[in-house]
């Protein structure tokens, strides 16, 4: 037989040689949830292995991660005072601002700090924006989002990750940053963020469930792959440095299509529901956690993501799965 593809699968050495997708620890970002106080380290029930940390414990955890080569984190602030206008989100002494300052003081450029930029953990109603007549007001929200981004940039954040899905926010953020001299703070847009039920466990982690209604009037409809590319390319035009697809596993087609349609780096967010499903099945002994996790990570890279945000990366590095 002329063609026997199995020749190249004969043993591990040849399989390694012809492997088309390779992962590196440099690709990964770990999301952290920072809360007020000190000495706080509270496991998040719906996300086994992930905890709420106050800044002091966050620093200890980050230090342990750095020893394993985990040098990129994304920060979510949880537990600030909530209001209608989300003013605590953009305060220049907010929890996230203080966390970024402390992290940068401790680790400087050994740690790359990305911050989530969205107000849903800071609004009384839990929506990702300013609400009037039960509708999230786009342009008013964009102003608040831009102020929040600037506060994080001024604190020393390396990259901002707006996750609100308002129209025009990337341009507004870029302009405000540039006007204030933060020309080198990068923006990783949650460019195609779908209204997804895979965010369930996160809403417990970030205390950000909308009290009333859902997020479908701003996040994307999961039936729309063409619109997803439109959304992402608009963000690139407005100055996004990285385009993120979220969630991950149910949206590999979007990652792949976006990769073919842009020269901007493509990232994926492997979200809380995806993580917790794997953890739950592994706890029951129904799947091999290591193998399932590594198969999933390769799938993201194969689809075209060069940056992977995932809660699994701690296990991957501490247990040497890669
Ligand atoms: C809110 C936000 C969500 C996530 C990140 N930012 C939830 C939502 O949009 O309802 C989800 C992350 C995850 O599930 O891991 N701006
Ligand atoms: Zn939000």
Structure characterization notes:
By secondary structure, the chain is an alpha/beta fold. It has one domain: TIM Barrel. Helix content is 39%, strand content 18%. It has 11 helices and 12 strands. The chain has helices at residues 12-18, 55-67, 95-107, 138-155, 169-179, 200-206, 225-237, 252-261, 272-283, 289-303, 313-318, and strands at 28-34, 41-43, 51-53, 72-77, 112-117, 130-132, 135-137, 159-162, 186-193, 242-246, 266-270, 307-310. It has an 8-stranded parallel beta barrel with strand order 1-4-5-8-9-10-11-12, surrounded by 8 helices. A two-stranded antiparallel ribbon has the order 6-7. The protein is globular, with a radius of gyration of 20 Å. Residues 116, 118, 120, 128, 163, 199, 202-203, 208, 215, 271-272 line the site of ligand PBG.
